[in-house]
User: What shape does this take?
Amino acid sequence: MERGPLKCLFVSSEVAPFAKTGGLADVIGALPKKLREQGIDARVVMPYYSKMQNQFFDHDSHFLTSYDVYLGWRVQGVGIYYDDTIMPTYFLKSDTYFSRPELYGYQDDYERFAFFCKGVLEMLRHIDFIPDIIHCNDWQTGPLCLLLKEMYSKDTFFSKIKTVYTIHNMKYQGLFGKEALNVLDLGNDYMTPEKIEYHGAVSYMKAGLLYSDKITTVSPTYAEEIKTCEYGCGLDRLLGDKLYYKIQGILNGIDYEVYNPQNDPYIYKNYTWRSIKRKQENKSKFQEEYGLEQKDSMLIGIVSRITDQKGFDLMKDTIEDMWVMDEIMQMDVQFVILGTGEKEYEDMFKHFAYKYPKRSNIFLTFNEPLAQKIYAASDVFLMPSLFEPCGLGQLIAMRYGTVPIVRKTGGLKDTVIHYNMQTKEGTGFEFEECSGYWMYKKIEEAYTYYKEYPDHFKQIQLNGMKKGFAWDDAAKKYYEMYSTMI
Ligand code: ADP
Assistant: This one.
């Protein structure tokens, strides 16, 4: 019997353009679209956050169905909404759990995402779509793999469905108290190190790792790194000794329709690699709008979550009694950072913005149009991450002809090639050691090219712009993997 197209349901707590806090949203906003182009019936399901209401669609006309979800002794109603303007997307609506100002960070996150996981499985009984593969992402969806394998698959309706669990960041594991067992209807026998216990906590990530059929992560280098104690965040032995056979690293791409300097509506002047001269206008207009001196200083941009992962401690290292950041500012550079996160680093950047007026600017908000302006306006893009599963910032930067300066780790290692003046090959600057000194040296190297060898600097920009980081390759690899699973 001829089987129809492979059916895949992506389950994610954030999806661009509906709700985004980081790279996960970009991935789920783009990969299913690409898979659809390749013939897979890929769909997406996510929570219906109250802050999205009325933003994307009038919700009554998109209502599909409603039903109850059982969490231990609690019963919670859920409404399912559907929209296919961008791609077929199901939204789980519950005012109890998702009518909040932020996506995460609440005391009952364990219950909110247990509800999400169960709600998604129950949804399948109510809609006309039974996937071959459920593709889960990060800790918020880990329990779904467990519930499916241990409970739902006993029902023939679910028994053929396979799961993929993608790690977008090992650091965030979804660790909760024992009350999580209760909402997932799991007995105490699951509280063992062989199952989902992790140092006395219930680990949603372990539920995904152990009970999925395949694990992927977002770059080949990170797939190896997570098996080491330096990067494995305590799960390296589990991954390296026990689960290695089902782990695959597939490099992320970026959405070439969204991130395209040729027609990006948010930037001052559109350009391509052929008309890269026009990029300069983005810098001067940005300087004008945001109070930076109008001169040809090298503009260093950062768009990032402001957390220790992103390597901002290196700014506070010292070189000959001077902070690295102060040392950097001795050069003719300007500095702009957009991000939100930990107060300690926000305060540090505020301090520098105060100390170097007209040469630096800091925006402590989440603002995508402004992010795109920064990608287009900057000359170099700094990403000194301690670890980086894939990283999208450097890919977007290269797409906009902005030269990345990165620490050689994870996906940064897989995507940025250090420039070689002799061969004229390479797309940016890399340093390996986790030290402020080496970060400074690479910024200095980029600065030398920028000021003294502009032809080479342009070559690096063009190399980056011409390099393909669209989703096509990755989508093919996912397709191949899914095909082996059904
Ligand atoms: P992570 O997922 O670890 O946060 P990535 O580099 O993989 O890092 O992806 C970050 C994504 O979020 C990029 O698309 C980046 O442009 C975007 N981003 C990060 N911070 C902000 C911000 N403050 N405003 C707008 N976009 C942001």
Notes: The first helix runs from residue 23 to 37. The radius of gyration is 23 Å. The mean pLDDT is 96. Residues 210 and 242 are 9 Å apart (CA to CA).
